[in-house]
Amino acid sequence: MKIGKLNERCGNCELISFCTEPYETPQLCVCEELADVEEQEYQRIAKSVTMAEIEDKLRQYEENNVSPWDDEHNGAICDIVIEKLIRRYEE
C-alpha cells in the first residue's frame, strides 16, 4: 500500500518500527514526500541505511542548527530515505 493511503492507522502497517509514537514526528503516513511510495519500498531503503549515514545526517543537523529528531534515529532515516528517493527520481 502507498504510504499516503495509510492515513494514521498507527500500528496497522509494515512501517510502525520506522515511526515514533502515534501522532508524533516522523509520522510517515502524513509526510507529503512519501505519499506515493509503497510501504515495502520505504522499508527496503530504510533497512539499507547505515549507521555512518545516520551519523552524517546528525552532523548535518548540527552544522545547520537544525534540531535533530528526538527518536531512535527514525527521523534521520526518514530524511535519508527521502534524499535517496529524490536522487533516484532525478536520474
Poorly predicted regions: none
Helix content: 40-55%
Return the average pLDDT rounded to an integer. 86
Q: Tell me how many strands there are.
A: 0
Strand content: under 5%
* Overall form: globular
Largest sheet: none
Task: Report the C-alpha radius of gyration, rounded.
Answer: 13 Å
Counted by DSSP, the helix tally is 3
Summing up helix and strand content along with how strands pair, one would put the structural category as mainly alpha
Terminal CA distance: 25 Å
Order of helices and strands: HHH
Name some characteristics of this structure:
mainly alpha; single chain; 3 helices; about 90 residues
Q: How would you describe the overall organization of this protein?
A:
With 91 residues, this protein is mostly helical. The chain has helices spanning 39-48, 51-63, 74-90. The mean pLDDT is 86. The chain starts with 38 loop residues before the first helix and ends with a helix. The chain contains three helices and no strands.
